[in-house]
Design goal:
The complex is a heterodimer of chains A (349) and B (141). With 349 residues, chain A is α+β, with helices and mostly antiparallel strands. Chain A has two domains: 3-157, no CATH class; 161-348, 3-Layer(aba) Sandwich (Rossmann fold), CATH 3.40.50. Chain A is built from ten helices and 18 strands. In chain A, the strands form three sheets. In chain A, strands 7, 8, 9, 10, 11, 12, 16, 17 and 18 form a nine-stranded mixed beta sheet that branches. Chain A starts with a helix and ends with a helix. With 141 residues, chain B is α+β, with helices and mostly antiparallel strands. Chain B has one domain. Chain B contains four helices and six strands, in the order E-E-E-E-H-H-H-E-E-H. Chain B has a four-stranded antiparallel beta sheet with strand order 2-3-4-6. Chain B is globular. Chain B starts with a strand and ends in a 19-residue tail after the last helix. Classes of the chains: A alpha+beta (349), B alpha+beta (141). The interface between A and B is medium-sized, with 31 and 35 residues.
């Protein structure tokens, strides 16, 4: 693209962003403050119908926190037609975020597959998520689309949203990172049911040396529901459907905790025998990046750099999970004991 | 004209600060003030003949002349040496404004400072980190 064409596209992109943000500001909203790291996010929905309640309930209410950003959820019924977006065709077709050279100071992503558009003004910290069709976007899968916007908001606070489950065991915070099916969520909830504290299911806000819960919800498959006896504990807030996993509410856990100091990165994998072993920093970064950057379409420079700093400043280990909840809990307790012993000997030196 | 290297270099501006990673060397850089703005002009495909007017109109008290031009030329040479930019024959634009994302004060000569504490982690491993198309295409997964 030559300079003149680039400038024209930039102006069209900015017009698109401001039109959508103006529509969001003009829409009548019900808004609540939810947790966003150590600050608050003013989350607005235009109706308190089932979808609106699901969106609000997905986050953790934080009425006392000062809101430093605002996010509005718009639907087709609020704004039937998007502003003109022909200029965005190359990036829409490639399923890519609009590049910064075009969009800055806004961030713009038009996800044609799930029918969701994200716009964030990085100066005012005003964001909007436009949803084409609630029926296309399964009510249970809304967490995934919001992942992009939460990552953008985290970037403004020099925080990183990591694809990991968070727990607090024996005074140490652990982040379990891994792809779907690696067992991280089940492991996190298992620990939450065995006298340890659960922070998050698969999405952690990491800022400085602390990790924070982002969502109040966790998706559980049939295997995990049976293993954890979820129904017996009355944790299920949304039953499973043929298209979607069931959903539990994390704050219903007796041992739910909003944040903790992050001590160790752990990467679970299903194995034939239980155990764990330390991981090299580079291996940890490769796995952390693969799991976390995929969720945000590859990420940008600061995402790469923060993940590198995160891997460089925390010990990491591979955790071998088996089909025994007790054995898995013992494995994690071994990791924590080893870390505590190491910290104690370092202190003595 | 110059452009930011497409392969192996990642760059992001926020609140007037531009972070750049060179994945070939594993070095990363933080640019602020005039350094970030010159990089913005490079990345926005602005014709070099328009730079003086843009920068002169943005920094209080700056009168564009030989001194400022030589400072920018030296900076560009440093960026080239650091592997962040390259020459291009593409046509540049003259219609541009710098982002209004920080308060500009007195002009200071732009400069490059490389951070190398994460080299082992950031440099792309040609065996494990490249795509099936081979080096230097990086994996997207």
């Amino acid at each position: 693209m030559d300079g003149r064409a680039h400038e024209l596209t930039r102006r069209q992109a900015h017009r698109f962003a401001t039109d959508l943000l103006t529509a969001a500001q003009d829409a009548k909203q019900e808004s609540h403050t939810v947790a966003m790291g150590d600050q608050g996010l003013r989350l607005g929905t235009t109706r308190s119908d089932r979808f609106g309640q699901l969106v609000q309930g997905a986050f953790i209410a934080a009425p006392g926190s000062p809101a430093t950003a605002r996010l509005t959820i718009l639907r087709t019924s609020d704004l039937p037609l998007l502003p003109p977006a022909d200029w965005a065709r190359p990036w829409v077709n490639a399923a890519q975020e609009i590049p910064a050279t075009v969009a800055y100071p806004y961030r713009i992503f038009l996800d044609r597959v799930v029918g969701v558009v994200y716009v964030l003004d990085q100066r005012s910290r005003d964001g909007v998520v436009w949803i084409r069709s609630e029926s296309e976007l399964d009510l249970r899968s809304f967490i995934t689309p919001f992942r992009t916007m939460m990552s953008w908001l985290a970037n403004l606070q020099d925080a990183e949203v990591v694809h990991a489950a968070g727990v607090h065991v024996g005074g140490l915070g652990l982040a379990f990172s891994g792809a779907s099916g690696s067992g991280k969520s089940t492991l996190g909830m298992t620990l939450g049911m065995h006298d340890h504290e659960v922070i998050s299911d698969d999405c952690l806000w990491v800022q400085g040396d602390r990790m924070y819960a982002v969502y109040n919800r966790a998706k559980v498959d049939a295997h995990a529901r049976t293993l954890l006896k979820i129904e017996d504990h009355h944790l299920l807030v949304l039953p499973p459907t043929p298209r979607a996993k069931g959903v539990v509410e994390l704050s219903k856990f007796t041992n739910f905790r909003l944040s903790a100091t992050l001590d160790t990165l752990a990467f679970p994998v299903i194995s034939s025998r239980p155990g764990w072993y330390p991981l090299a920093t580079r291996a940890a970064l490769r796995m952390l990046s693969r799991d976390s950057l995929r969720e945000i379409h590859g990420g940008r420079t600061r995402n790469h750099l923060r993940l590198a700093h995160l891997a460089a400043s925390h010990p990491a280990c591979r955790v071998l999970l088996v089909n025994s909840l007790r054995a898995n809990v013992e494995t994690i307790e071994e990791v924590v004991a080893e870390r505590a012993a190491l910290a104690s000997s370092t202190e003595r030196e | 004209m110059w452009r930011v290297r497409g392969d192996g270099v990642s760059m992001e501006r926020l609140d007037g600060e531009t972070i750049v990673i060179n994945f070939d060397t594993g070095e990363y850089f933080s640019f602020r003030g005039s350094s970030a703005d010159v990089l913005w002009l490079v990345d926005s495909h602005v014709a070099p003949e328009a730079w003086g007017a843009v920068l002169g109109g943005s920094f209080p008290g700056l009168e564009w002349g030989e001194t400022a031009q030589s400072e920018v030329d030296a900076f560009l040479e440093e960026l080239l040496t650091a592997g962040l930019i390259e020459h291009t024959t593409a046509q540049g634009t003259t219609e541009v404004t710098l982002p209004d994302d920080y308060v500009r004060s007195e002009w200071t000569a732009p400069s490059v400072h490389a951070n190398s504490d994460l080299v082992d982690l950031l440099v792309i491993d040609p065996i494990h980190d490249t795509s099936e198309d081979g080096w230097p295409s990086t994996r997207t997964d």
